[in-house]
From TrEMBL:
One MF term in the entry's GO annotations: DNA binding
InterPro entries reported in the protein's UniProt record: Tscrpt_reg_LuxR_C
The name this protein goes by in its record: HTH luxR-type domain-containing protein
Organism field: Salmonella enterica (Salmonella choleraesuis)
Residue ranges constituting the HTH luxR-type domain according to the UniProt record: 1-29
Keywords carried by this UniProt record: DNA-binding
Example GO biological process: regulation of DNA-templated transcription
Signal in keyword set: no
Amino acid sequence: TVSSHKGNIKRKIKTHNKQVIYHVVRLTDNVTNGIFVNMR
């Protein structure tokens, strides 16, 4: 059915967004840590 298919797509997008946010947070952590180390 179409409605269940749409639900599956939404669920996939949600998990994908969580992964992207997780990677962005890790990237910013690494960048800020690198900047602090360089500034000292």
